[in-house]
Predict the structure.
Amino acid sequence: MALLEIRGLCKSFAHVVANADVYLDVEAGTTHAILGENGAGKSTLIKMISGLYRPDSGEIALDGAVQHFASPRDAILAGIGVVHQHFMLIPAMTVAENIVLGTERQRDAATPRQSRLLFNRKRAAASVQELSESLGLPIDPWARVETLSVGMQQRVEIVKALYRRARVLILDEPTAVLTPQETEELFAVIRKLNQDGIPVIFISHKLDEVRAIASTVTVMRAGKTVRTAPVADATAAQLANWMVGRDVILQSRKEEVAVGDSVLEVKNLSASDDRKTEKVRGVSFSVRRGEIFGVAGIDGNGQTELVEAIVGLRKVNGGSVHLLDRDIGHMSVGERIARGIAYVPQDRQQDGLILSFSIAENLQLREVSKAPFSRRGWLTRAAARKRAQQLVEEFDVRPPVIDASAGSLSGGNQQKVILAREMSRNPELLVAVQPTRGLDVGAIEGIHRYLLQLRAEGRSILLVSLELDEILSLADRIGVMHAGEMVAVMDNQNVTRESLGLAMTGKWSEKEAIS
Amino acid sequence: MPLYAVLTGLILGGVIMAIAKYNPFAAYAALFSGAFGSPTAIGNTLAGAVPLILAGLGIAVAFRTGLFNIGAEGQYWVGAMAAVWVGYHFPTMPWIVHVPLALGAAMLAGGIWGGVIPGLAKAFVGAHEVITTMMMSYIAILIAHFMVENGPMMAPGYVPQSPTVAASATLPPILPAVFLNSNLSDGFFIAVAAIVVVHIVLFHTTLGYKLRAVGFNARAARYAGMNVPLYTVLALGVSGVLAGLAGGVQLLGVDFQLTDTFQSGYGYTAIVVALLARNNPIGIFFASVFFAALSAGSQIMQINAGVSANMTDVITGIIIFFVATDRLYGYWSQKMRPHRPSSTAAIISGKGESPQ
């Protein structure tokens, strides 16, 4: 019998059916992936299992016993452990304090009375250390959480869940924030937990990861569980198909485009981050017409600062930036926009959109002072709305309601709004940073298609991504950043994953480049 | 939502009165008749709303840009001083020049005081506008004291007050035959015009779009190539201009001279007005009339129902509380609704609603 059984769970909100007839059987000691696009109902399901929402109908059974969770506390006590995508840790407190938080007394019920009132740091640290070692997840209980890497913080969350005696561990998009190495470590941890008999529910929309770690996969689409199958029996194409309900082209097909003159010329560029540490050190490269130039690198190696210096959000320490033979290195953001730089920022909610503005208002964000959005300082609402309606249809933003607030859209549709705005300006250069971050297969496919379309029109694209696959499938040439320098620029035709990996970790030498 | 807050405030106020052994119905009847019971009462209520509308608009413009102008009271007083000074210095000027000149001086003074100085301080050295506008406000109030207490604006004699403004600088009353003996002056039309202008600027110009963009998300505004410091100064400047105009209109239409009281309170009540109206220019009209009515009616309530006029302050306090906690209503009306971003901070900056 399955350890966790979900039978016919339904949940709807005012107008939206979030989950309809969801079934799930999770066996002890296995990793069960739940795969689905954004908005497929994965989060709602997790929130019901973890006691945040109450189902409208259906049952959740743990070890055969039907559970009724009135609050997350009930779910925790029953043995449901959840590691959310955004960690629920207190940065200023130590690892041990975070882990025992809220359970200080229950755990020590057997200890003398006074210690029920007083928090014993040493005992907490000792018990955390003991647990983490027995699990094979070593962590320093005395370290402050804010000093830990993201991967370690996730580990703290896992230990926290197990400290509360979780019998089922749910990981919500656990790899979204991890580097490839950290992902590997996480997978090792998951395998170890499985060996100890603890089932892991692995929520993801990344096919490769699901195939790498899970033994069983359940695919959700439009609030329903459409299929459950052993991972070994399903191909990536099949999984993608179940997820989006149609065939998906996994490898982007590129047309041949004649490469023209250089559009962006960066020479010896240096820039510092907000803490005045030099993050970009003498970077030189060029992007030509009809070309996608990919910038690869491990997060935090100067990519962000490089991009910000190019689009005008960051002051340049030295070197030059030329757009179409014109020095733009000291121009304001507005002037660079006017000269034809489009920019899809990494953080679409913080930088790219004003969430409380409507879609129509967001579509005019970067060019509000120009036609068709305004004339001589007066907003021309009718024309702007017409343009917005057109763009929303062209870029397939859903729902296609131009008065809906940007904040009400899913991540993929928010990104479409940004792309619609930036691409519709017919830019000379599109700078896109992590344009598909956090998006599902269907949305990624659409965004890749738009980028390739722009390339086919003879525009230039500077694509910065942490996803090697994205770079490899889209870029014509690849520049690799390491420690603020562009350590290598390679032609995509004769590049291997290995050489890229070496360059990203700074182990690339000129000699190898020649050979 | 704001309506619920008002209703809850009135009901809880009634409960408190009942506990204190007053008849809340009699009290509210007296309050209402004091505010709207006669043409004179209506005139006075509307007159009381005028400075609240103007200062409230000023605060709303700042809120919309993500700024908290807490010093409208001081801007009101510098505006008042400037208007009075111009008002009694050029007695031979024709009306058509004198009034605009005096009001222009009030706006300029308010704008510099509330906007340009704190705005520049914020834009260039990062001084928080809550502190700077508040401190500038104290300075303004104390300067006003100095001006009429043996200072340069004191009228001859021993009473600490300024000379009265010349007839050519006063705002004439509206329909004096109808609103008999009330304080209602042409300042009311200025306030209504200001509502229309602020509404048009905020929602129909690129300037308003940019102000709102900066207020909702300064990072996105910067990404969009907008000059964030410029709009910070501009928003606080407009805010100060409107608060200064409130002072000017009040002095030229109602008070005619500076006296030594200096407790208009309009600049503070205006913050509540802007909050209750959710920074919506049209909402500000109704919120201002409401608070002006509370204040005008409270005297009659005290005389006729024996309830202390301070009771209206209690009601005001409860209303503010419920405006700030408006999520409660959403929670009560529908317990399990998907999360809607709404918080006190969001209300303050007008983020809790869609524009228009």
User: Anything to note?
Assistant: Residues 335-356 of chain B have pLDDT under 50 and may be disordered. The domain at 2-348 of chain B is CATH 1.10.3470 (ABC transporter involved in vitamin B12 uptake, BtuC). The interface with chain A takes residues 203-210, 212-213, 216-217, 219-227, 334, 336-338, 341, 351, 353-355 of chain B (CB under 8 Å). The first helix of chain B runs from residue 2 to 19.
